[in-house]
Amino acid sequence: MARTKRKYLVAHHPHHTHHHHSHHHNHHHPHRAQDQNQQSSIPPVDLEMSKIQDIEEGQKIVMQSQNNNHVIHNETNGSNSAPKIWLYLIKHWPVASQPIALVIIFLLSWGIASSLFPGQVYIHSTIMRIIFLFIGGQACGYLVSFVGLPDMLGMIGFGVLYKNIGVGYFDGYEKLEAALREMALVNIMLLAGLGLDLDALKALFGIIMRLTLIPTATEVAVIAVCVHYLLNFPWLWGILLGLVVTAISPNVVVTILLKLKEERLGLNKGIHTVIIAVTSCNDVIAIFLFGVLLGIAFSTGNLTHQLLQGPVGIVMGCVFGAVSGLVILKFPSDKSKYANGLRFTTIVLCGALSVMGSKYLEYPSAGALGCISASFVAGTGWRRRQLKDPTFTTEVGTYLDLLWKFLKPVSFSLIGKEVDFKVLDGNIVLYGMIALLAGVAIRLVSGYFSFCGGNMNTKEKAYITLSGFPKATVQAALGPVALDLARSQKSDDATYSLANSVLVISVLAIISTAPLGALLMTKLAPKWLKKENANDEEL
C-alpha cells in the first residue's frame, strides 16, 4: 500500500500553488506519467475540489484550456472583471470543472426524481431542504477553503445558518437524518482504523492509555466543579455534562489527519496512531459512562445491566470487528478481478451493520469500535501482504476517501444544524463558557504532562495534546439525549432545565472548539510536525 499511496500523492498534489509545476512536469515526462498510472492502477476518481486530476488527464485538459483561452478572450475583452475570473477558471480548469460536473449530476437526478415522484420533490419539500443543506454545506466549505481555512468551518457555519433561519427542521425524515449521520461515522471510523499501525500501537500503548484516561478525568472533574458552583448543577448532572463535553470529535480529527497524510506530515513515530487511538478510546469511555449516569439520573432500567453494557459492548465491538476484518481479508481472493470493489463494499457494510446493529441491540459503545477494529485488522493484513508481495495493491483507502468527500458535507452540516440560538440563555452561556474554558485548559495541560516517556519532542507532544481539543460529533449526538428523555418521561421543571442546560453547553462546546480546533490543528501542523521524505517506506 505504501508505495502505491505515495504515487497517488504525487499525482494528486493538494495545493493550488503547484499547478504550474504539475503541468510543466507532465509535458516533459508524459511516458513516465503513463507508466506510473499503469503501475499503480489507481482509478482517477477523485472529487475533492482542491486536488488536481490524474497527470494523464491533466495533459488533455491543458491542451483544451489553451484552446479555450483564445475563444474566451475574444468574447470578454470589453469588461474588466470577467477576464480575471475566466483566466482563473482556465488556469484551474481541472479543479473547477469538478463542481460543475457535480451540479450537472444533481440537475439530472432532480429531473429523474421529479418525473418519478411528481409533487414530492418541489423546492419547499423536506427532502429538497435536506439536499440543499448538503449542497450549501459543500459550497460554503469550498468558499472557505479559498481563504485558507479548513473547509469544515464553512460546512458547520452553513448548518448553523440553515437551522437559525428556520429551514433546518426535517419533520418525518428523522430516520434518514440519523442514518446519514451514522454512515458518516462509519466512514470516518473505517478510515481511522486503516490509519492505525500495529507496531506503533504496541510500542506506545502506555502513552495512549495515559493520554486517554488522565486528560479525560481531569476535564470531567473541572467541568463538574465549575457547573456545580456556578450554575448550581447537582454533582451527578455536572459529571454527566463533563462526559458529554470531554469526547473528542473523530470527524474533525481524522479529517485533518487525512490532510496531514497527503502532505506527509507527522508520519514518523506513530503520531497518527496515537491521535486516532486516543480519540476513539476517549469517545468509547465518554459515551459508555454517559449512558450509565443518564440511566441513574432518570432511573431507567436496572443498574447492573447498564454497568455491564460498556464492557460487554466493547468486547462485542472488538470481536465483531476482528471477525469482519478476517472475512474481508479472505474474501474475495487477491487474484479476483473485482477484489477492490468487493472489499470496499463489504467493509462499508460491515461498518454500517456494526453501528446500526449495536444501536438496535442497545449496546451503542460497540458500534464505532466494530468499524475501527474491522478496518484495522483488514489494513494490517493488507500491509503484511504488501511486504511479502510488492505487486499487491488495495484501493480500499482510496475508495473510502472518495466516499468521505460526499459524506463530509453531510456530516459537518448536520453538526452545524444542531446549533439552535433560540435555546441559548445568557446566564448559562456565560458560566458555561467559563466551565468549558477551564475544562479544556486543564485537559491540554494534563494531557501534555501525562506524556512522560516516548521519543517525541516538545512540539510533537503539544500537537498530540492539541488533538484533544476539537469537539463536535459526539456533542451533537449526546447533547439532545437528556432533553429528549426529559420530554418523553414528562420530568419536573428542574430536571427539564438541567437537561436543557446540558444541550446549551454542548452546543457551545461545538461552536467554540470545532472551528478553532480545526484551524489550530491545520495551521500548526507544518510548524510542529516533521515532513517525511518521499523515499520513506513507513506509512
UniProtKB/TrEMBL annotation:
Signal peptide: none annotated. Residues 13-31 have a biased composition (Basic residues). The keyword Repeat does not apply. One of its GO terms (biological process) is proton transmembrane transport. Keywords: Membrane, Transmembrane, Transmembrane helix. One of its GO terms (cellular component) is membrane. Residues 140-515 form the Cation/H+ exchanger transmembrane domain. It is a multi-pass membrane protein. The chain crosses the membrane at residues 96-118, 130-158, 178-196, 208-231, 237-258, 270-298, 310-329, 341-357, 428-451, 498-521. GO terms for molecular function: antiporter activity. Residues 13-41 are annotated as: Disordered. It is found in: Membrane. PANTHER family: NA[+]_H[+] HYDROGEN ANTIPORTER 2, ISOFORM B (PTHR31102:SF21), PTHR31102. Belongs to the monovalent cation:proton antiporter 1 (CPA1) transporter (TC 2.A.36) family. This is Cation/H+ exchanger transmembrane domain-containing protein.
